Amino acid sequence: MPIRVIAGSAKGRKLKMVPGESTRPVMDRVKEALFNILGVGIRGSSFLDLFAGTGSVGIEALSRGAGHVVFVDNDRLAIRTIHENLAITRLAERAEVLRTNAFSYLQRPGPQPFEYIYVAPPQYKGWWKDALVAIDQNPAHLHPDGIVVLQIDPAEREEVALDVLEPFDERVYGKTLLWFFERPGDVDNAGGDP
To answer: What's the predicted TM-score (pTM) here?
Structure first.
C-alpha cells in the first residue's frame, strides 16, 4: 500500500517504502488522526522522528509547517529512503537525518530539546519501553510541556514507572495504539527564584 503526505506543502506526494520487511509504515488514517490531535502546535516546532523508517511521520510534520525535524534510524536502507523522500517532497532544508542507534542518541549529553518526539520502534521487542524510560531519565531531550507520542501494537501496552513524563491520552486505530505523554512545565519555578 503506497504511503503519501496527507496535508500541507507536500500534500499528495507519494513516498518511497524502505526495501524489505524491516519497517512498518504508519497507515494514513493513523497519521491523519495524530496530526489532528497535535493541531496547529506543529507549526514552527522542533520534532524528533525516532526509529524513523520511511520518515513519513517527520515529513508530514515538515509538510504541515514544523520548523525542524531530526530523523534517527540505524538502518542503512531506511536512511537512504528518508533522503529520497525528503527530495521527493522538497523538504530537506529543514531536516537532519542521522544514522545512529536510537538509544545512543537518547544518551547524548546536552541534547537539543524538541517540542515533539515520535517513537515508533520495531514491534514486540520492548524497545518502546526502553525509549520511553530513556527520555524520562534524560528529559532535557524534551521541552517543558513537550509531547512524546508512542506508536505500538495495543497488545504491547503495559504500565511503565516514570518520574517525569505523564500519560495524558491514548487512541487505538485497529492494530495501532498512539499513546501520548507530556513533560509538565516547571510549575515550581514559574515565578522565578524567591
So the answer is: 0.92
63 φ/ψ angles, rounded to the nearest 5 degrees: -60, -35
Decide if 147 contacts 181 (C-beta within 8 A).
yes
**Structural domain includes residue 188:** no
| Number of domains the chain contains | 1
Residues 188 and 127: their CA atoms lie apart, in Å, by 33
Residue 110, domain member (yes or no): yes
Determine the Cα angle at 64 with ends 59 and 69, to 5°.
Answer: 45
Which residue range forms the structural domain that includes residue 68? 3-182
Distance (Å, whole) CA 48 – CA 61: 10
What is the torsional sign of CA 31, 25, 88, 77?
Answer: positive
What CATH number is attached to the domain comprising 64? 3.40.50.150
| Burial zone of 133 (CB within 10 Å; 0-12 exposed, 13-18 middle, 19+ buried) | middle
Q: Is residue 115 part of a domain?
A: yes
What does the pLDDT look like over 73-123, one tens digit per residue? 999 999 999 999 999 999 999 999 999 999 999 998 877 899 999 999 988
21: pLDDT strictly greater than 90: no
Give the tens place of pLDDT for each residue, 133-164.
999 999 999 999 999 999 999 999 999 999 99
Task: Supply the DSSP string of 1-32, one letter for each residue.
Answer: --EE--SSTTTTPEEPPPSSSS--PPPHHHHH
Q: Look at residue 166 and tell me if it is in a domain.
A: yes
Quote the CA–CA distance of 113 and 86 in Å, as a whole number: 22
